[in-house]
Amino acid sequence: MAIVGPSGSGKTTLLGLLAGLDTPTRGAVLLDNADLTAMTEDQRAQLRGEKVGFVFQSFQLIPTLTAIENVQVPLELRGESGASARARQLLERVGLGDRLDHFPSQLSGGEQQRVAIARAFVNQPRILFADEPTGNLDGTTGARIVALLEELNRESGSTVVLVTHDLSLAERAQRVIRLADGAVVEDRATEQAQANGATPADEAGDVLGAPGAR
Amino acid sequence: MNTPGSSPRRPFASLVSLAWRESRSTRRRLLLYMSSISLGVAALVAIDSFAANINRSVRAQSRALVGGDVSFSARQGWTKESDALFDSLAKAGVAMARQTSFASMATAVVPGTPLPAPPGDSTAAMPASPTLSAVTAPNADSLSPVRNAGGLTRLAQIRAVTERYPLYGEVLTEPAGRWTLLQQRPVAIVDPALLIALDVSVGDTIALGYARFEVAASLVSVPGDPGMAAAIGPRLYIADKYVASTKLLSFGSRADNEAFARLSPGTDAAKWLSSIRPQLDSARVRARTVSESESSLTESIDQLANFLGIVGIVALLLGGVGVASGVNAWVARKIDIVAVLRCVGATSRQVLLIYATQAALMGLIGATLGAAIGVGIQLLLPGALHDVLPLDVQVQLEPVAIATGIGLGVWIALAFALRPLLALRRISPLQAIRRNVNPPRGKGIDWATWTVNILIVLTVVAISATRANAPRDVIGFSGGIAAVLVLLLLSAALLSRVARFSVRPSWPYVVRQGVANLYRPANQTRSVVLSLGFGAFLVTTLYLVQGNLLAQLRITEEASRGNLIFFDVQDDQSLGVDSIVKAAALPVLQRTPIVTMRIAAINGKSVAELAPPRSSDTLPPEGGANARQRRREEANPNEPRRPSGWALRREYRSTFRDTLFSAEKLAGGKWFGEIPALAGKPADEVSLETDIAEGLGVSLGDLITWDVQGVKVPTRVTSFREVNWARFEPNFYAVFQTKTLLAAPKTYVLLAASDDARATAQVQSAVVRRYPNVASIDLSLVRKTVGEISRRASLAIRFLALFALAMGVPVLFSAVAATRRERVREGVLLKTLGATRAQIGRILVSEYTVLGVLGSLTGLVLSFGGAWAIMTYVFDRPFTAATMQALAIAAAMTLLAVGIGMLSGRDVFKETAMAALRES
Q: Which end of chain B is more exposed for a tag (fewer CB within 10 A), N or C?
C-alpha cells in the first residue's frame, strides 16, 4: 500500500498515527486488532517491537553501532537470544554479508538503507512502514531498494505501508491512497493488485478502517 | 516471536551489552564529563587512605610512641612520694623507665684538653628534689670546666634516661649496639646533626654544664621520636644518673619529667591504673594509658582527615555539577538515536536503563581513575611529610578508603547524571521521522525528577553528617552549599532578565547578538554561571583560607626583630650575660624577667575548692581539641561557667612590666594605674590573657591570690589582653606590675640582635663558657626552619589552588558543551548569511565574557563569606580578605571561560555551511 500526496498533505502525520508514534486527538487506530489509542506509550513501544518495522528516508541507523548490531537492536530490546545469527542471516539476505561489522558512516546510502530494511524485517513484523525509503537515494539505488522491499514483502507476508512522492513507485503497490490538505482524496487498487487478484481491503483495509473520518 | 533459535533470556544483560556497544563513539566524550569527579575522588582517596595508614601505624607503634603501657608525668618534677611510688611499682614487678628532657648548650671539648674531675657535689639528686632555695650558679672561673673546653657550642635537647629505657622498641645507633654503654659510663649518644654542628666525631668529648661525656655513638632512630624533633635542637642522650653532675637543672629550669611502665602481658592498663589512682593523686603524678594516648592521637588525625575530606567532597559535588551539565549536552546528541530506539520498540524504561548504565560505567571508570591518582598521592605523602610525622607510616593500600572513594564517585556521578537523563524518557518516537517535534511537557509533578532532587540533597546531607564533627557543622556545610547554589541560580536568573531589558539597538551587532544569547531559548546562562560560580567559589575559598593561615606563619617569621635568645638566665647572671653581649657590640633588645607561680585562690576560694581533682582535668589540653572543647562549653549557656582544672593547677611563668608589648592588645579593662584601688581590695594589679581568663572563669575586678614560691600575693584583675602567640617573643598569660614582683625570685630571658653568624656563635660560646646553665638559641636557624616549613606550605597551597583550578576545567567544559551544538548550528547559519569568522568570534567573546565575569564575581563574593566562616568557626582565627589575589583568580576564571567558549566554538569556524544545512 502506498500513501501519496504533496508536501504538507499529512502523509507523515498519518504514518505517525498508524505506527502508534503519535496519538490522534479523535478516533481510534487499530493495529492487528489492537487499539493503539487505548495503550500507554510503553505498551505501544512493545507492540512496535513485536509487530511493526520501520524504514526511514534518512535511514536512521544508530551511528555508534555496526551494521549487524543495528539489525540486532529490536531483538535485544526484547531480550531474545540468537539475535546475532538472525541478524547475520538477514544481512546476507540483503546482500551485505561481507559488511557486517561496518559502521553506518562506512556504508553508502544504498547499503545503509539495506541495513535499515534488514532491521525492519528482523522481528518478522506484521506491518512495515516505509517513509520515503528512496527519497535520499539516486534512481538506480532507489530501484534496487524497492526491489528488495518487494522481495522481502513477498517472502515474509508482511504488509508494507509506503509513503512516497514517487508516483511510479506508488503504482507498484496494490493500493494507493492519495492525501491532500489532511484528507484522503483517493483510495484505489492499482493494476498490480488486480494482476494479483487481491482487493484493496484485503490487506491494509483494517489499517484504514475509516479513511474519510479525518 | 518465533525467531529461529530464539528463547527468552535475561533482558537486563542484553540491555547492558547494548548499552556498552551503543556508547562506542561517544564513550570518550562521556568519560570526559565523568572525569569531572575524578579529582574529587582522588582527593578523598588520598586523604582517607593516608589517615588510615597513619592510624594503622599509630596502633601498631603506639607503645613505642607513648613509651610504655602507661606513661606518667609531673609538671613540677618528681617528688619523694612519686619516687617511692615508682620504687614500689618496680618491686611489684612492673618494668619502669624514666626520661628527663631539657634544653642546654653542648660544647665540643678540644682534643687534648684534660678531662676535669667531676664537681664535688655531683651526688646531689637535683632533678628529683627541687627546693625553693635556688641553686646559686657558680661564678668563679675555677669552677667552670666548660671554660676550658674551647670548642664550638650548640643548643641541644638533653634526654636523660634510666636503665630500662626504652621499654618498647629499640634505639638504633651507629656504630650499632652502643646504646647499653650509656648506663655503664658517662657517654652521650647524639643526633648526627650535633656531631656536625660541634665538629666532633664518635670518640670525642663534649661538655654539658659541669660534666664531660664521651660521644659513644650517633643516633639512627629512637622509637616514637619524630625526626622533626631534631629541627628544634639535636637530641643528646645521657644516663639519668649523670644529670646531677652537669649541675644544669636548677630551680626554675624547664624540664619535662616522664616515666613509663610496661605491664605484664594481658594486664588491663586502665584497671591497673585505677588501682593506684589514690597514690598517683597524692604524689601529683598524671598518668594515661596507651589506649588513651592512642585514641586522642587517632582522633585528632581523624578530625584533620575529616576536614580535608570536606574539601574532597566539595570537589566531588562540583564534579557532580560538571557531570550534570556534560550529560545534558550528551543527551542532546542522543535524541535521534533514542527516537529510533523507541520506534523499534524500546520502552522509556529501557532507554533510561541503557543510558544510565552507560553513565554508571563511565562514572566507574572516572572514579577508578580518580582513585588511582589518589593512591599515587597517598604513596607520595609519607615521603613529603617524613620529617614532620612522629612515626614511620606504613604505606599500604586501604581498600575501605578506595572503595568509599569509588563508591561515592559513582553515586554522585550517577545521581547528577540522572537529572538530565530523565529527559530521555520524554523523547517521542515521532522525532525519528520529524525533526523539531517538541516532546510533550509532563503534566503535574514529575515524581522521578523530584526523587532524584531529593536523592541529591540527601546525599549531601549524609556525606556531611559522616564527615562533620558536630551537628552544627552538618547544618553549616549543607546549608552553606545550598545557599551558594541558590544565590548563583538567582544571579543567573537576574543576569538573563537584565540582559533582556538592557539590550539596545544602538549596540554593535555582535555585542547585541552575544548578550541576547544570554536570555534566548536554550541559553546556557544558568549552567555556566552555576558551574563557573561554584568553581570560582571553591577555588577562591580554598585560596583565601590557605592564604590566611600562611599569613599567620609569615607574621611569626617576620615580627621579632631579635634573633638571639638567652634563657634560664639566673637573677645574678643577668647583668653578666648582658655585659658579654654588649661587649660583642650586639644590642640587647629585651630583658624579660620570669617568675614561676601557681594560683592559690580566686576570690577567696582555694583551688581545691574550685576544682576537686578529676583525672581528666589533670591532662594537659591538646591544641585544637581544647579549643573545640571550649566552644562546646560556650555553646551550652545553661551550664554555669566552671574554671578548668588545668588552668587552675598549672604552673604560671609570669612577668612584670608596666607597658604593653606590640604583640598584645588590650581587650578589656584598663592598663595598670588607670583604675583606682578600692578599699578592701588589694592594690596590686594583674593583666590576664583573654583565653586563660576564660579558662579560669574570672572577670574584671576579680581577686586572684598567687602562690609565688611560697609567698601569697593577692592581686585584682584589672585588664584582659589579646596576645598573638605566633610571634617568637616571650608572651605571658599573666603580667604583673613591676612593684609587685620585683623582689620575687626570678630568671631572665634576654633577647639580642645579631645578623652575623660568626658573632652570634662567639657570643653564644662566651656566655655558655661563663654560665653553663644558660641556654641560648639562634632564632635565625629556627627562622630558616620555619621559612622552610612555610615555603613547603605555600607550595602545598599552590598545589591545592592548581588542583582546584584543574577541577574547574572539566566542569566548565561540560557546562559549555551543554549548548555547544546550538552555538555551532547557529554560528554556521550566520556564516551562510554572510557573517565573517571575526564577527562570530566577537559574538562568542561578548557572550562568554559576560558569563565569565558574572559567574566568577558571584563566586568571589560568596567565597569571602565561605572563607570567613571557615576561619572563624573551624580555625578560630581572624579573617583578612586578600581582595587583589581573589580578583586575580576571578580574572583567570573569566579568561578560562572565554577560552573554553572559543575552543568549543572552533567547529563553527571549521564547518562549512553546507554540512550544517544538510544535518538539519
A: C
